[in-house]
């Protein structure tokens, strides 16, 4: 069984093709600058990379071009597109629909109901799914919702202290996201330590960030709430925020609610605080040069990560493993150091030399540390492929 996993951006499409017989990655590729007269297309098969420019007007055409690349008689790895058993999507928010679902009209309608909650994610996925269903009806589309991994979070963590009918009728509750990444970390750490009963805190830190408390491979609590704009500060999204500040901002600026929400979703987070960039690498360089707001943004990011880490440690009664993943988690030497600083009394001791030298999957805790600290590069696409395979086999 071969499954294509699609990862969509507003003007980009990236994919990986897996042979699920042994979970080998057969190919990866994508299209950037979709909608431009000169979109950049690339594909890697068998270690060979090819690039070219072409006019790719929309994501559906991008998927069709990808299938043409994969089935090219000389350089492809498929005989025909019929070998693709499904196209899997790391879908974000379906509200009343979660878990892993074959894409139907009802699934798309449920996603549309949550467009205001996930404005950067749901609309492009819905457009692409609709177009692919029309143009490639022979290939099943599978949505693996990010919220699905957090279905095991208890009600005392899921409910906001608001009128109960808000949750009952309009799904106003803590859903949690980055499910594919946290699921991968849970499984990989269990494999590394040979235990199924571990208490793990997965720190997915990147352009979008969240922490997840995991008990025995199952999500027990997470830092994100109803929307992907919540929890930790993100590169350009706000994180946790007091809603009673909204009327203050609206009166002071004359902006509408939609305009203020757009500011919170697109011009806040690390970018908003620093006024410079949402990229931690840029902020570290600027802070070293004396940029005070860059330093402030980093300090807020580290502090909020530690605040949520503390709450999850209490929920689990301690942790056997703290795992860093995501672009910042995997590569951010200073971020890992800042998050773990001063936690020796809690049995969390980072090894500075191991942390500085780490590349790829590594243990970076010191020998006396009761809690192991790991870097675990995530593989969200493989998780989506596994979930899609499970769904197809169940249907069969």
Topology:
Elements lengths: L1 E7 L3 E8 L4 E9 L6 E7 L2 E7 L4 H12 L13 E6 L10 E3 L2 H9 L8 H14 L5 E4 L10 H4 L5 H7 L8 H15 L5 E6 L5 E6 L2 E5 L23 H8 L3 H10 L2 H6 L5 H9 L3 H25 L4 E5 H6 L1 H8 L11 H6 L4 E2 L8 E4 L4 H16 L1
Parallel strand pairs: 1-6, 6-8, 9-12, 12-14
Antiparallel strand pairs: 1-2, 2-3, 3-4, 4-5, 7-8, 9-10, 10-11, 13-14
Give a structural overview.
This protein has 15 helices and 14 strands. It has 396 residues and is of the alpha/beta class. The protein has 2 domains: 2-144, 2-Layer Sandwich (Nucleotidyltransferase, domain 5), CATH 3.30.420; 194-375, ATPase, nucleotide binding domain (Nucleotidyltransferase, domain 5, 2-Layer Sandwich). The strands form 2 sheets. The protein has an 8-stranded mixed sheet with strand order 5-4-3-2-1-6-8-7, with helices on both faces. It has a 6-stranded mixed sheet with strand order 11-10-9-12-14-13, with helices on both faces. Strand 2 (12-19) and strand 3 form a beta hairpin. Helix 6 packs across helix 15, helix 10 (280-288) packs across helix 11 and helix 11 crosses helix 13 (333-340). The model has no long low-confidence stretch (mean pLDDT 94).
């Amino acid at each position: 069984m071969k499954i294509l996993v699609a990862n969509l951006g507003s003007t980009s499409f990236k994919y990986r093709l897996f042979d699920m017989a042994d979970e080998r990655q057969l190919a990866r590729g994508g299209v950037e600058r979709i909608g431009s007269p000169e979109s950049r297309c690339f594909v890697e098969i068998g270690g060979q990379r090819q690039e070219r420019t072409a006019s790719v007007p929309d994501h559906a055409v991008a998927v069709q071009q990808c299938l043409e690349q994969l089935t090219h008689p000389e350089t492809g790895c498929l005989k025909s597109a019929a070998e693709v058993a499904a196209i899997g999507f790391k879908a974000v928010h379906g509200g009343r629909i979660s878990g892993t679902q074959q894409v139907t009209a009802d699934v798309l309608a449920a996603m549309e109901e949550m467009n205001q909650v996930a404005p950067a994610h749901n609309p492009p996925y819905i457009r692409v799914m609709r177009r692919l269903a029309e143009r490639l009806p022979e290939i099943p589309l599978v949505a693996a919702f990010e919220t699905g991994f957090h279905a095991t979070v208890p009600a005392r963590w899921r409910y906001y202290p608001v009128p109960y009918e808000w949750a009952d009728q309009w799904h106003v509750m803590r859903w949690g996201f980055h499910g594919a990444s946290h699921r991968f970390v849970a499984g990989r750490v269990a494999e590394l330590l040979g235990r199924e009963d571990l208490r793990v805190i997965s720190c997915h830190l990147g352009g979008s960030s969240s922490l997840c408390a995991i008990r025995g491979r199952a999500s027990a609590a997470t830092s994100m709430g109803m929307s992907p704009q919540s929890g930790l500060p993100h590169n350009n999204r706000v994180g946790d925020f007091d809603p009673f500040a909204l009327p203050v901002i609206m009166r002071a600026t004359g902006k509408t609610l939609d305009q203020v929400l757009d500011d919170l979703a697109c011009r806040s987070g690390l970018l908003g605080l620093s006024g410079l960039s949402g990229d931690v690498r840029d902020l570290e360089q600027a802070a070293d040069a004396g940029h005070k707001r860059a330093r402030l943004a980093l300090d807020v990011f580290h502090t909020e990560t530690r605040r949520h880490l503390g709450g999850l440690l209490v929920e689990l009664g301690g942790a056997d493993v703290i795992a860093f993943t995501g672009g910042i988690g995997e590569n951010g030497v200073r971020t890992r150091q800042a998050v773990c600083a001063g936690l020796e009394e809690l049995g969390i001791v980072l090894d500075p030399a191991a942390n500085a030298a780490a590349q790829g999957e590594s243990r970076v805790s010191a020998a006396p540390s009761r809690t192991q600290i790991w870097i675990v590069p995530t593989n969200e696409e493989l998780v989506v492929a596994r979930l899609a395979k499970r769904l197809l086999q169940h249907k069969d």
